[in-house]
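quick q for whoever's on today - can somebody do inverse folding on this one?? i tried earlier but teh output was garbage lol. tokens:
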């Protein structure tokens, strides 16, 4: 279990479906937080350790993601 704290951690996790890999890691997005306060892509391990994989900048990469992420058959996010 993980509680988002805001700031670089991210906040406001998306209600979009989560992606889960073969190792049990959970992937999703937050609509707020991150270094630029416009959202993140995160991974949570089975032990509850959160890792921010990407921080949106609000520029060409977008901001405030409302959707989730998907994994392909090779495990790419």
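ok took a stab at it. sequence:
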């Amino acid at each position: 279990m993980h509680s988002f704290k805001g700031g670089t951690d991210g906040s406001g996790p998306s209600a979009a479906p989560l992606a889960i890999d073969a190792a049990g890691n959970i992937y999703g997005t937050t609509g707020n937080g991150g270094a630029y306060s416009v959202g993140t892509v995160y991974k949570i391990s089975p032990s509850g350790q959160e890792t921010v994989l990407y921080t949106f900048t609000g520029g060409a990469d977008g901001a405030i993601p409302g959707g989730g992420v998907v994994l392909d058959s090779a495990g790419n996010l």
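fwiw The mean pLDDT is 92. also Residues 32 and 39 are 4 Å apart (CA to CA). so keep that in mind when u check it
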